[in-house]
Write a structure and sequence with these properties.
- The structure holds two protein chains of two kinds.
- By secondary structure, chain A is of the alpha/beta class.
- Chain A has one domain: Rossmann fold.
- Chain A contains seven helices and nine strands, in the order ββαββαβαααβαβαββ.
- In chain A, the strands form two sheets. Chain A has a six-stranded mixed beta sheet, sandwiched between helices. A three-stranded antiparallel beta sheet of chain A has the order 1-3-4, with no helix packed on it.
- In chain A, strand 6 (158-162), helix 6 (170-185) and strand 7 (189-193) form a beta-alpha-beta unit.
- Chain B is an alpha+beta fold.
- Chain B has two domains: 5-55 and 289-421, no CATH class; 70-276, no CATH class.
- In chain B, 54% of the residues lie in helices and 19% in strands.
- The chains are: A alpha/beta, B alpha+beta.
- Chain A binds chain B through residues 45, 48, 50-51, 70-71, 74-79, 81, 83, 85, 89-94, 102-103, 105-107, 110, 114-115, 150, 154, and chain B through 1-2, 5, 8, 12, 15-16, 18-19, 329-330, 332-343, 416-417, 420.
C-alpha cells in the first residue's frame, strides 16, 4: 500500500494554513518546524484527523479524509494514527497499562493479544515494573514513554508527535528522541513537530512552515506540489 | 478480551467517580433520599391501607352495622342519679330482620361493663352478649370447643366463649374448656374459644383495663343476669344508662344490596328515634372510601417522589456538567485516540447511571430500614410490596439516563482540538 498524504487547504478566516501541499511517504521521519503561528499545530491536527481542512484534500493511503464522517475519522484515528503530545496527556485515573490500552478500547474489533502487546510495549519503553502506577506517580519522562507506548499499541501507520520533548529536560528528551530514531529504523512513519532546530535536525527530513505555507523542504527528495 | 466492553466501561466509570469520592457521595444523596422516601412512604401507606381494609373486612363487607351512640346531653345533669335511656331497641331489631328485603339476618349485641375473674386474675374485656348467628355474620373462627348455640340461648345457660386474648390471659397453660370463670357476680362455663382477629394497631386497650379481648355470652343470659340498665362510674358520680342493644349487625344477602339496606336502615331509624342516638356504619362504604383515600395518598406520594427524584436528578446533572467541563482535556485525549462520539456519550452516561443507581440501591436499603424503624418506634404497620424496590430501582436508573444525556451530549460534541487545548 502506498501511503501518500496530500493536503491542500486554506482557512478562510484565520488562514492558519494557506494553501500548502506536500506528500509524506511511508517510513519517513519528518520534522515540522516553524515559529509559533506558522500553522504547525493546525497542520498536525489536520494530519491527525482531529481537525478538518476548510477546503482542499487530505488523503491517507489514498483515502480522502474530507469525505469521512466523525465516526469514520475516529475509527481511522484509533486504527492508523498514534499521538504523542507535549503534555503527555495520559488519563489520570487509569494506570500505566490501562493508559497504553486506551486506543484499542475504541476499536470495534480489538486484537486478541492486546494485553500482551501492551506489556511488550511497556517493557520496551522501560516501564514494565510500573504497570500499576498512575500517571501522577511518574516523572515527566516516564509519562512521555507511556504516551509513546500508547501511541504504538495500535501499530499505527503514522506517528504524530507534537513538541514531544518540550516539557522534558535535555537528557530525558534525548532518550525520547532515541526512541523515535529506533522506531524510524523499524520503519515507522513519524512526523515530529518542534520549534527547536537541534531536535528538528535529527529527523530524516524537515518541513519548514511560514504563515501557513511551505517555507522550505530539506533532507528528502520529497517534492512539494 | 477477558471482560466485555460494557464491564470495562462501567469499571472505568466507577474509577473516575472514585477520584472524587466526596463529590460522588454527595451527589448520590439526592437520589438516595428520593428513593428511600418513596419506598418508606409506599410501605407506610400500604400498611395503613391494608390495616384499614382489614378493619373494615372484620366488620364484614356484606354487613350494615347499627350502633347505639350516647346522645349529646343538652341539659347539664344536676341530678346525681339519673337513668339515661337511649340507643337501639329490640323494636329496631325486629323491624330490620322481619320487614327489610334482602336481609339475611340481624344480629343483636349488648356490651356489658363487667369484670371477668378466674382465681386471682381479673380482667375487663368486652363482655358481649349476643346470639349464635354472630359467628356467621362476622366470620369469626372457633379455635376450641364451639360457639354459642340455640340451646344456650333457649336454656339461658351460663356459658361463655372466650376471645383469643382472654383465653390466653386466663388460661396460659391449661385448656379453658369446661373451666368456670366469674363474670360480674356469676359463674360461667367456658364452652369454646375463638381465634384472634388479625391484631390491628388501631385496637387500643380500653382505658383502665389490663387486657383487651372479648367474652361472649348468650343474649338471653346477659339480659337475665345483668338487666337492661348499665351502671357506669363517671367522675365520682353514678351514671345509669339504659340501653337495650348496643349494636345490630345486619347481614345483607347480596353485596349489591348493601347501599339499599343501609339507606333503609337510616330511614327507619330516623323515623323511630327522636334523638341522634344511633350510628349507621357501612363497611362497604368505608372500604370504598379507604380505597379512594389510598388513591389520593398515592397521587400525593407520587408527586413528592417525583419532585424529590427531579431534585436529585438535577443535582446529578449539575455535577456531571461540572465534571464534563473539568475533564474536557480527557475528552479531547480520548477523542484523539479514536473514541467515537458514542463512546464519550456512553462513558459519561454510564457514570451518571452508576451515580444514580448507586444512590438508588443505597436508597432502597435505607428505604427498607425506615419501615422497620417506623414499625418499631411508632407502632405502625408497614408493608413493603416487592414492587416498590423494583420500581424505585427503575426510577433511579431512568433518572440517571434522563439527566445524564445532556452532559454526555455536551461532552461528545466538543471539538477535539479545542478540548485538547483546554487546560
Amino acid at each position: 500500500m502506498d501511503v501518500r498524504r496530500e493536503y491542500r487547504m486554506g482557512d478562510n478566516v484565520v488562514r492558519a494554513l494557506n494553501g500548502l501541499s506536500i506528500t509524506f511517504q511511508r517510513g519517513e521521519y519528518w520534522s515540522i518546524m516553524g515559529s509559533s503561528g506558522s500553522g504547525k499545530s493546525t497542520l498536525l491536527n489536520i494530519l491527525g484527523c482531529i481537525d478538518r481542512a476548510s477546503s482542499g484534500i487530505y488523503r491517507v493511503g489514498g483515502e480522502d479524509v474530507s469525505e469521512l464522517d466523525d465516526d469514520d475519522l475516529s475509527d481511522l484515528r484509533s486504527r492508523r494514527l498514534g499521538f504523542v503530545f507535549q503534555s503527555y496527556n495520559l488519563i489520570p485515573q487509569l494506570n500505566v497499562l490501562e493508559n497504553i490500552l486506551v486506543p484499542l478500547f475504541y476499536q470495534d474489533n480489538p486484537p486478541e493479544n492486546s494485553q500482551e502487546r501492551a506489556l511488550e510495549l511497556a517493557e520496551r519503553v522501560g516501564l514494565a515494573d510500573r504497570l500499576d502506577h498512575r500517571p501522577l506517580q511518574l516523572s515527566g519522562g516516564q509519562q512521555q514513554r507511556v504516551a509513546i507506548a500508547r501511541s504504538l499499541i495500535n501499530d499505527p501507520d503514522l506517528l504524530l508527535a507534537d513538541e514531544a520533548t518540550g516539557n522534558l529536560d535535555s537528557k530525558t528528551a534525548q532518550e525520547i528522541l532515541d526512541l523515535f530514531d529506533e522506531l524510524h529504523a523499524e520503519g515507522k512513519t513519524i512526523l515530529l513537530v518542534t520549534h527547536e532546530e537541534e531536535i528538528g535536525n535529527r529527523a530524516q527530513a524537515m518541513l519548514r512552515l511560514k504563515d501557513g505555507q511551505v517555507d522550505s523542504v530539506s533532507g528528502l527528495s520529497a517534492t512539494p506540489r | 478480551m477477558i471482560e466485555s466492553t460494557f464491564v470495562r466501561t462501567v469499571r472505568m466509570g466507577v474509577r473516575s467517580l472514585l477520584l472524587h469520592k466526596l463529590r460522588s457521595a454527595l451527589t448520590t444523596l439526592g437520589v438516595l433520599f428520593g428513593v428511600s422516601s418513596v419506598i418508606a412512604m409506599l410501605a407506610i401507606g400500604e400498611g395503613a391501607s391494608i390495616e384499614a381494609q382489614e378493619q373494615i373486612r372484620q366488620l364484614g363487607s356484606q354487613n350494615v352495622i347499627l350502633r347505639s351512640v350516647k346522645p349529646v346531653e343538652d341539659q347539664v345533669s344536676n341530678q346525681r342519679q339519673r337513668v339515661v335511656s337511649y340507643g337501639l331497641t329490640y323494636n329496631d331489631l325486629g323491624r330490620v330482620s322481619e320487614t327489610f328485603p334482602g336481609v339475611r339476618r340481624a344480629v343483636p349485641l349488648r356490651q356489658l361493663p363487667e369484670e371477668v375473674r378466674f382465681g386471682q386474675k381479673a380482667f375487663r374485656p368486652d363482655v358481649i352478649s349476643t346470639v349464635p348467628a354472630y359467628q356467621a355474620a362476622t366470620g369469626r373462627v372457633v379455635e376450641m370447643g364451639r360457639f354459642l348455640n340455640e340451646v344456650d340461648e333457649e336454656t339461658v345457660a351460663n356459658v361463655c366463649v372466650l376471645g383469643y386474648e382472654v383465653s390466653r390471659a386466663l388460661f396460659p397453660f391449661e385448656s379453658p374448656l369446661g373451666q368456670r370463670i366469674k363474670i360480674g357476680p356469676d359463674y360461667f362455663t367456658v364452652v369454646g374459644t375463638l381465634l384472634s382477629r388479625v391484631r390491628l394497631s388501631g385496637d387500643r386497650p380500653t382505658p383502665g383495663s389490663e387486657s383487651q379481648g372479648e367474652v361472649f355470652i348468650p343474649l338471653t343470659t346477659g339480659t337475665k343476669w345483668f338487666g337492661e340498665t348499665l351502671v357506669k362510674m363517671r367522675s365520682g358520680s353514678m351514671d345509669m344508662e339504659e340501653v337495650q342493644l348496643h349494636e345490630i349487625i345486619v347481614e345483607v344477602e347480596h353485596a349489591v344490596n348493601v347501599p339499599m339496606v343501609a339507606a333503609a336502615c337510616r330511614e327507619m331509624l330516623s323515623r323511630q328515634h327522636t334523638q341522634q342516638d344511633y350510628k349507621v356504619v357501612v363497611p362497604l362504604e368505608l372500604l370504598l372510601r379507604a380505597e379512594e383515600t389510598k388513591r389520593i395518598f398515592n397521587i400525593v406520594l407520587g408527586s413528592i417522589a417525583g419532585i424529590s427524584l427531579l431534585v436529585g436528578g438535577i443535582g446529578i446533572m449539575n455535577v456531571m456538567l461540572a465534571t464534563v467541563t473539568e475533564r474536557t482535556r480527557e475528552i479531547g485525549i480520548r477523542r484523539a485516540l479514536g473514541a467515537k462520539r458514542r463512546h464519550i456519550v456512553t462513558q459519561f452516561l454510564v457514570e451518571t447511571v452508576v451515580l444514580s443507581v448507586g444512590g438508588g440501591l443505597l436508597g432502597i436499603l435505607l428505604g427498607l430500614l425506615i419501615p422497620i424503624g417506623v414499625e418499631h418506634f411508632a407502632d405502625m404497620r408497614t408493608v413493603v410490596t416487592p414492587g416498590a424496590p423494583v420500581l424505585a430501582f427503575g426510577i433511579s436508573a431512568a433518572t440517571g439516563v434522563i439527566f445524564g444525556i445532556y452532559p454526555a451530549w455536551r461532552a461528545a460534541t466538543m471539538d477535539p482540538v479545542e478540548a485538547l487545548r483546554h487546560q
